[in-house]
Amino acid sequence: MIYLDHLLKATQGTLGQRSKHTHFQAFNHDTRQLAPDELFVAVRGERGNGHDHLLDAVRKGASGLLVEGLAFQQLSEQTRSALSQEEITIIVVEDTRLALQHYASAILQIWHPTVIAVTGSVGKTSTKEAIANVLSCQFNTFRSWQNYNDTLGIPLSLGRLEARHEYAVIELGCDHPGEIAALCRMLQPQIGVLTNISPVQLQYFSSLEHLAFELSTLLTSLPAGGHFFYNQDDPTIQALLAQYVRDTPSPITCHPFLENIPEGLSAQQLVTAVTWQGVQGSIVRPEAREHATDVEAPEKEGQQYIQLSSQLLGRHHFDTMLAAYQIGLSRGIFPTHVEQALTDLKPLVGRLNPLPGVRQSMLLDDSHNATPASTAAGLQTLSTLAPAGSQRIAILGDMLHLGDYEEEAHRSIGRQVAEHVDYLITRGEWAALIAEEAQLAGMPVERIIMTSTHEDAAQAARRLLSALPTSTTSSSTDLENLNAVILIKGSEETRMERVTELLMARPWEASELLVRQTPGWKKTFFMHAERPTWVEIDLNAIGSNTRHIASLVGPQTSVLVALKADAYGHGALKVARTVLQNGASMLGVATVSEAIPLREAHINAPILVFGYVPRWQMREALRLGVSVTIYSKEEAQALSRAAIALDKVVKVHVKVDTGMGRLGIRYEEREKILELVRTARHLPGLELEGIYTHFAQADAEDQAHVQMQLSRFQEILQALDAEELRPPIVHAANSAATLMLPEARFDMVRPGIAIYGLEPSPSVHLPEGFRPALSFKTQVSQVKWIPAGEGISYGSTYITEKPTCIAVLPVGYADGFRRGPQNWQSVLIHGQEAPILGRVCMDQCMVDVTHIPQTRMGDEVVLIGRQGEMTLSAETVAERLGSFNYEVVSGILARVPRVD
């Protein structure tokens, strides 16, 4: 509960508007999950400004607004007028973030609960919850909300603190140096808890030593007479503690999670059982610890043992239980009450939470987050809990924020996967290193599947499960008859809970059983671009478009997807993985060099090189195992010599020019074609795999030329049939022909542009269900007024006729955002077109936003894609540029990061 007088005094705020509302249920900074009678806090974030959503907050039932003075003054007259007519309290402060922090400090001093601060690399939330559960059996206890653990989240959470609370158990996170100290200054904890120290957030701490120093700030921030509880099995903590004792007079009492452990044993070695019912362990009663010598013999006279148990899964959770147990005893709670409170502990949402899965599987949903330590613990738990005869499947996403340790961390997990898992499915580019290392560690390649989307990862798991026998009498909750146990884990940004939802036996329960299910999270997009101009790739659209093509041509015709020019600017590696999971069986590239990154990423599917392979590159083609296009006898002989030298076989496709006037043997030279086919069939080291042609006008409204080419190609095929020389794969159809000419599909089709959801031409439209995969975006970097009569950009080719508000955008022709002879003409901001003014620069351009007054620095700008009700398609851009959509998307340069 938040009282207005407390808030005004703590923040030194002023009332911008009075109303009957003088207290509020809680703080909320996200209108997408705001509840009635809450106080909406307008926070300026990295990608948004809460002051843009004040009216939305009022409509959602907020009874108060906490705003910043300058931003409030800059609101439009329309917004200020609308707010003045509402029964709502408005508190004005200089900085809402600082105001929240001041309130947090003040309310803790007013109601003075004993503050227990919990930090560490992993296990913070579980430990916080366990401690709060134990204390709640005797005291009114506040716990910070979910994992709100930073300088914004903790004050927001403390809006729920009440005068009745005797203890406040608060989780402390950190992702940059100095954050723990800042949090401790705000909270003034009397008790500190350090769970462990392992690699997390190393992109900002650079080393484990620097991270350890940061976490140890909790110890040095405690007041004289404070208490510090720590994991005695963590060597880094032990070293920090030894240094602290050596360098500092000891005003603080330090407590290990478990004292007097028999020599040579760790706390986790005291675990007696890890089952689906939870973790159990034997420890000596506190009053009998001085007699303890052997935990393996509980019947030994003079020893008194107790059994700690919880419903938490995983051996590592015994440390969680011990921390809560020790703190409970230190607060004077009877051991039996502590033990009962621990027994009631259940897995938290997204943290090794067992959920019934499809086809008699059990999901270990560990999708909340991922670090090397927590992933290793998850793998060990998977291995322990999987019943004999069931398959152990791990679906792992990227582990992020590990700095220079990122590669080694993923490779380390890969080695552990090979030890604990029967099948591995990865989702993401860093996770692909897990797959690579697992294979090097001896895991069979056929048991490893690499994907780039949640849907493909889930579908891969479903295919594995469908191959397993199922019992007609057992259910997914029959733990002894499980077909498989599936661990699902990845860093927060990878959103692996989406995979869990797709595999749940009762997916309608997802909103209550999975993490990140609020409306706000559902709309959250994690952008990992290295700069504020980026391309978003919808890999699900690419997967769906591929399935549409496969369905259209039927099971008798295979699908080769063209990945030329980095998959038409969409990112060849991720596109390759996606299409291969959704119906494609072969890939096509223009050059041998385009095949190299695919093979290096362990994509082993057949690849056809469409273009010229010079003789000096033939051995590289053989090394990569790609199929090569040939169109001369001399070329075939050179390939054969290279194959003999390397003792390999290369597959070849003969290219026939039926009217394109490009690469291939001319149709008129029929005897040369037949001779090349005969030669390819008999030369050592060559395997004739296919023959093909390419249409010049398949996307034209007039189909006469394509029909002519098709007729010529069929004549060649008839001649080959007459001599029984026809290769196994005949192909001719690009995207347009695949859609418009069923008779041209033959054994295989070669769609390109249609896979990316773009129309082959103005005359050939995509069927219903296809959708574009690429959006091109940037952000507003500055907004300012330019007087009348002033020039804009190089050459001052545009002169303002009146005062003009412009937005500067950090995108230019070096990104593929064309300068001339024609430019984009306009972009989308706030769902409206903003015209480009003057010349496009190498890295920037300027647009007119006079008619869009709400435009601010940081606003999203759409260059290709949809915003609100408006769409700026690649086809529209192409028309403005006097080009076509192929060139528009392929012309977005490599320095523009691709995100999905």
TrEMBL record:
It is an enzyme of class 5 (isomerase). Residues 773-900 form the Alanine racemase C-terminal domain. It catalyses: L-alanine = D-alanine. Its EC number is 5.1.1.1. Keywords: Isomerase, Pyridoxal phosphate. CDD domains: PLPDE_III_AR. The active site is at 564 (proton acceptor), 794 (proton acceptor). The keyword Transmembrane helix does not apply. Substrate binds at residues 662, 842. Its cofactor is pyridoxal 5'-phosphate. It comes from the Bacteria. GO terms for cellular component: cytosol. Pathway: Amino-acid biosynthesis; D-alanine biosynthesis; D-alanine from L-alanine: step 1/1. GO terms for molecular function: acid-amino acid ligase activity; alanine racemase activity; ATP binding; pyridoxal phosphate binding. HAMAP family: Ala_racemase. Catalyzes the interconversion of L-alanine and D-alanine. May also act on other amino acids. Belongs to the alanine racemase family. This is Alanine racemase. It comes from Dictyobacter vulcani. The lineage of its organism: Bacteria, Bacillati, Chloroflexota, Ktedonobacteria, Ktedonobacterales.
